[in-house]
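Batch manifest, entry 17 of 40.
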Amino acid sequence: LVPSWRFFDDIQTVPALLVRTATREGDFGAWHALLPPAVRRWSVPVFNPEGNLRLAEHSLLERLLMDVSEWDERRGEAVDALVSYQLVLNLVRAETRGAMEQDAERLQFKLVERDAATGALGADLLVSREHSRA
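Output type: structure tokens
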């Protein structure tokens, strides 16, 4: 018997995380993709810490989108008060440490749709406010 993995055929779009940085007085630069897909290796079925980390990071992005969709503005708190938002912000700060311009002091991130089959980026799902890089 061969198992059928057809239940994965329905996945069409997944969230992608993009970031841009700016100096204290300068304008923001271009958007750059974070969290590249994990590289598949022969040892993946036995030992896959990088793949597991990427799965956890992408689950966090999906959780943020779910929290934002359930967010009620009338409660008086901003979207950036959500725990999942703060976790994504910390993830962005950790991933950009040393990777972006050294003089950049501000950052902004956004979640966009990405076609699972082609990798093409689509519509914006969430755009963060401006944050310090620290």
